[in-house]
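Exercise 7b. Backbone tokens:
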């Protein structure tokens, strides 16, 4: 049981987008060929938008079996799904509306509920019902897409948040002081159970944290991204040259 970590560096964010889009579709095809389905968790934020648009633009000629893909979200803002801040809204507009998906396989995070804790527990139950578990009994997504904040947050696991330390629950809804809002998010155990995770990081402002995550054993204390080390899967960091500049992977 081990993490297989790969680092892919492309000169620009634009070049990285097409490489990551190809990776995403390749993992989906492999999962469907292996098991007949694919469980995919999408990331929010701005970085993945280009990948979503690229996949949407090439979907017609691509042979990706999207109708067999179950779509989840790794985190969500505490807003209605039709709010421009919603990760569901962003992914639906840029990607899902352009794909031949099975609408019954799309599972938005219920982060707009009055009772967010109840919503998190319900989402966890849905994941347990849809996504096959690994030998530890944790649902193992075929692919989780992630970004990373300049503070080293991943999904909505922010530095100093109690959610980062969660070891039992798979989905929680912590208050995030730096945002002054609550979020709903996968926890480390669920992220680390993935068969594959692709972390898309671009920009100079993330170069220092990227270096820390890759090299500093103490980074786990302050950079939640450093805690993502798949139990038995492939962790791919996909960086542009700017984000890789302070790492050993700089060209
Ligand atoms: C969100 C994301 C979040 C994102 C990082 C990086 O809801 O905002 O899920 O975790 O991946 O904040 O965001 P950028 O890609 O915008 O830098």
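Sequence design result:
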């Amino acid at each position: 049981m081990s993490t297989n970590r790969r680092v892919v560096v492309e000169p620009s964010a634009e070049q990285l987008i097409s490489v990551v889009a190809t990776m995403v579709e390749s993992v989906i095809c492999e999962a469907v060929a292996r098991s007949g389905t694919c469980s995919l968790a999408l990331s929010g934020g701005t970085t993945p938008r280009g990948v979503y648009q690229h996949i949407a633009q090439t979907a017609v000629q691509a042979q990706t079996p999207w109708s067999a893909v179950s779509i989840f979200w790794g985190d969500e803002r505490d807003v209605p799904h039709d709010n421009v801040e919603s990760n569901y809204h962003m992914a639906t507009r840029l990607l899902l509306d352009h794909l031949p998906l099975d609408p019954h396989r799309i599972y938005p995070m219920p982060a707009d509920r009055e009772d967010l804790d109840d919503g998190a527990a319900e989402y966890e139950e849905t994941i347990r019902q849809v996504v096959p578990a690994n030998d530890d009994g944790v649902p193992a997504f075929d692919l989780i897409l992630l970004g990373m904040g300049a503070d080293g947050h991943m999904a909505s696991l922010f530095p100093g948040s109690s959610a980062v330390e969660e070891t039992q629950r798979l989905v929680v809804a912590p208050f995030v002081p730096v945002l002054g809002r609550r979020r709903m998010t996968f926890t480390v155990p669920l992220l680390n159970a993935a068969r594959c995770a692709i972390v898309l990081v671009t920009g100079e402002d993330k170069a220092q944290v990227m270096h820390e995550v890759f090299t500093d054993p103490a980074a786990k204390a302050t950079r939640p991204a450093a805690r993502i080390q798949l139990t038995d899967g492939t962790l791919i960091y996909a960086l542009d040259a700017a984000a890789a500049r302070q790492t050993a992977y700089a060209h």
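Instructor comment: The chain has seven helices and ten strands. The chain has a mean pLDDT of 96.
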